[in-house]
């Protein structure tokens, strides 16, 4: 039913979304923690920056990333010293772009979860001899579970649906940077509505199942960023 | 062995500057009006207020001084927060085991079953915290704190969030903590009756400073402190049950200042002979006579010596005096009118009789 290119696009998409989600959960945890608990006066600037991809046209984000990741960008010398010519039009570049693109969808649910937990459970754990890392893993992580589920699913689903950023910095290289949303675009351009239907329907179903599972798992937890 | 504190903490709108030294046994109440810094002091002692400077030493263990400051998780303390602080993702049993599991085996002084029995938690173990009443949650929180075998137990108004009924349920457990365990307790409270019932020592706080500290009986009756001038000012008497009057259902009590009789508490034949009890006598329930009265319905009359007369200048009037009394070493308070004091020519050093109209048995 799916052509080999479509299968490759599916695989690239899942790999990209999976990797991006894992990276975002790892990076997003300390960032969300800091946003939830810091009393830093200019924290609100960081919050606004994190939320930026929510409203920024993906092409704008993609454009700046293209420049940043290209050989003549500000990161060019650094990349060159690491033996990398350019990250634009590579899978790695796509991952970097997706991390920015989906950042608020992971950070905000985590930040909300951490804020809701507050300081008290940590203080209680400290009075019961738990070290800071122990406090995090034994108290914060289980209490923030609904936040993590929401963050993971939203981050994953949002990355799957990415189009503009990918087009700008990834291009359309089958097996490397061609993802499902672009494959659908290609099919429509070529008037191959049958294949476009299969892929679109598949994505529609996947998104619905993902959200359904989030709502089922976190019955009492509202999805905040939309 | 003593607990020595000299803690300093500055915030935008509040300064804590608390210095006190109390024995490291029994219950010490940190007492004062709302906003006086009781909770902040307790948190500073626990290491939960990071900006705290100063010194805190319990026995020969230094928790904080000029050169070091142990983080909370390295201080051997138990902390019972004001409101329920159980981990809601864990069952009662798992909550109790949380501190126990993190304790080196050689430091463990209580076993699980001991704490469960002491606080009567056996039936609650499999439950989730959300399914417990407020009183039950606090009992679990206390047991959990005990199971980390603390050197010092810190309690922040553990009864404040409970209604009268739940308070009555949980108070006997405090009495058991006191009598069965050898752990010093710092107990924050703004309720005078709770303090009178539980505390052995009192640290009086006001505007972030320690106003005075000392044994409870002395602190309650010192005329230079606000407690003695409270509407419900009272003295504490430590007495022993010496016998029973079975005909009239009275319990006879002995204290250094003499003999007292109170109605049997509860049902049955009253408390066993030899049991130590704490009594509370309100200043307004004591009247003074020059000679021992006969032909009075008042049962409890003890000889005392007047130690001082203090004007009670309230906003309303200066009609009353606070008389400090000494009943063979036990300080008592009487509130009488200035007119009576004049008529009886009362003065410091004069022997009189205290007629006690009502005595509350606190245990």
Describe this structure in words.
The complex is a heterodimer of chains A (226) and B (363). Chain A has helices at residues 4-37, 43-55, 58-69, 76-81, 91-117, 120-127, 132-143, 145-160, 164-169, 180-189, 193-217. By secondary structure, chain A is an all-alpha fold. Chain B folds into two domains: 2-221, Rossmann fold, CATH 3.40.50; 234-361, OB fold (Dihydrolipoamide Acetyltransferase, E2P) (Beta Barrel). Chain B contains eight helices and 20 strands. In chain B, strands 6-7-8-3-9-10 form a six-stranded mixed β-sheet, sandwiched between helices. A five-stranded antiparallel β-sheet of chain B has the order 13-12-11-14-20. In chain B, strands 15-19-16-17-18 form a five-stranded antiparallel β-sheet. The longest helix of chain B has 17 residues, at 164-180. The radius of gyration of chain B is 23 Å and the shape is globular. Chain B starts with a strand and ends with a strand. The mean pLDDT of chain B is 90. The interface between A and B is medium-sized, with 19 and 22 residues.
Question: What is the strand tally of chain B?
Answer: 20
Number of domains of chain A: 1
Mean pLDDT of chain B: 90
Please state the CA-atom Rg of chain A, rounded to the nearest Å.
Answer: 20 Å
Number of helices of chain B: 8
Number of folding domains of chain B? 2
How much is the radius of gyration of chain B in Å?
23 Å
Concise overview:
The complex is a heterodimer of chains A (226) and B (363). With 226 residues, chain A is mainly α. Chain A has helices at residues 4-37, 43-55, 58-69, 76-81, 91-117, 120-127, 132-143, 145-160, 164-169, 180-189, 193-217.
